[in-house]
Amino acid sequence: MLEPGFRPAVLAVRAFDALARESGSPVAVRMALEQTDGSVFHFETRLLPSGHAHSAGNAAHLERFVKFILWSRGGWRLHIDAPAGEVARLQAHYRDTPAGQFDSNFVGERVFDRPLAIVRTPDLPPERSVTKPLGRHLNGNRIGFDLGGSDRKVAAVVEGRVVFSDETVWDPYHKPDPLYHFDGIMDSLRKAAAHLPRVDAIGGSAAGVYVNNRVRGGSLFRGVAQDLFDAHVRNMFLDLRKAWNDVPLEVVNDGEVTALAGSMSLGENAILGIALGTSTAAGYVTPEGNITSWLNELAFVPIDYNPDAAVDEWSGDYGVGSQYFSQQAVGRLMPAAGIDAPADLGLPERLKIVQALRAMGDARARQIYDTIGTYLGYGVAQFASFYDLRHVLVLGRVTSGEGGDDIVRGARQVLEVEFPELAARIAFHVPNEHDKRHGQAIAAASLPSIAS
C-alpha cells in the first residue's frame, strides 16, 4: 500500500458508529433529501451525546455523511432531525467554506435550479421515488457516442451490431469556447453517419449531469464561463438534434451508460458501474433493471477521511473519489512508487508509462495498481451501505492491461478479509475486449426509442 495514511471512509464510519453505540445514549439523526421532481430519500445515522469526550467529531461525521448522500443521490433540500447546534454547523459549512459552497452551487443551483436548503425539523416528508427503464433499444441505424475527458468515441450501429467505430483525442476540460465542444461532437457524428444508410437515432454518454438532454453541469465544460455555458452549452444537445433533422436523441451521464452496458452484457441487474478514466464516472442499475433520478457522482463522494488526504483541484475538497479511482490516482501515486516522469507530462501519458512498466512486470507499477485495488475494495464496501449491490463492473482506461486485473484482485481481497458478507454477495466484473471496445457505444446508441 503506497499510501499508509489512507483512512477508508467505511472504517471511519464503522468506528464512529461503534463509539456512538457504546456511549449508551447515541443521538439518532434522521434525514430526508428532496429533489425538485418530488423524489425524497431517507437516511439515518448516529452522533455522540453532548459531553462525550469525542463529541467534537460529530460535526465532521455529519458533514461527510451529508456530502456522500448529496453527491450520490442528489437533492436541493435536506430535511434533518438533529440537534440544533449540529444543524447550524452543517448550514455554516455549506454557506461559508469553499468546498461547501462548491457542493451547494453545483448540486443545488446547477443541477436542481435551487439554492441548497438545510431545514431542521422533526417532521420528515415521506420517502418516494421513481425509476424508469433505460435504453436497450437496438432496432434501426444508430449512432452512439461517449465524451470523456481525454477522448471522444463514436460508433455506427446497425440492428445492434457495430459497423464502424472511431476514437478521437481531445482536451475539453479547459477549453473556454463552446464551439470547440459542439464542433468536436459534430465531427464524430459525421464520421459515424458516413457508414450508415441513414441515421434513425443518436444516443450519447458524457461526463456530467444531464436532465432531459440539457446540460446541468459537468467537468467537460468547466473551462466555459457561466454566461457562455447558459447561452451555448446548456441546450447544446438540443441544438445537435436540430442539426440532425430532429431524429430521436438521448444523452445521459456516462456512468449510467457504463452500468447499462454492464447490465446488457452480463444479463444481470443490481449493478454499479465504475469507470476509472480521466476522472471517475459511475452509474447504477436497480435490481429491476431500471435507472433512478440519483446523481451517482462518485467522483465527489468522500473516500478517505484523513484530513491530509489529496485535494481535488476542482471542488477543493479532500479525500474524494476522483483522487482514488482515476488517472489522477495513477499520477499521484507515481512518486510514492519511485517512478519518475517529467513535471509537465499529462495524465494519459503518465498512465501509459505505468501500463508499459506493468506489462514488463515492474513491481513499482504493480504497487500502484494494488493500491488502487485497495481503495476500490474499501470504496465498494462503503457504496454497499447506500446501494443494493450484487455486481460491480470496473472499467475505464486505468483498468487496461494487467493493471486492471491487479485492481480487481485487490478489491476482492479487501472484501474477503474485511467484509466477508459482502464478498459472498458482490461479484466484480471486467468487460471483455469486445465490450471494452464497443459495449459503451452500443449501450449509448440504444438510449433513444424509435418506431419499429
Describe this structure in words.
The protein has helices at residues 9-22, 58-72, 84-96, 98-112, 178-193, 226-233, 236-243, 254-266, 327-337, 347-359, 363-383, 402-418, 420-423, 433-445; strands at 27-34, 40-47, 77-81, 117-120, 132-133, 141-147, 151-158, 161-169, 201-206, 209-211, 214-217, 249-253, 271-276, 280-285, 290-291, 391-395, 427-429. It is α/β, with parallel strands linked by helices and 452 residues long. The chain folds into three domains: 9-120, no CATH class; 132-256, Nucleotidyltransferase, domain 5, CATH 3.30.420; 259-440, Nucleotidyltransferase, domain 5, CATH 3.30.420.40. Strands 8-7-6-9-12 form a five-stranded mixed sheet, with helices on both faces. A four-stranded mixed sheet has the order 2-1-3-4. The chain has a four-stranded mixed sheet with strand order 14-13-16-17. The chain is globular, with a radius of gyration of 22 Å. The mean pLDDT is 93.
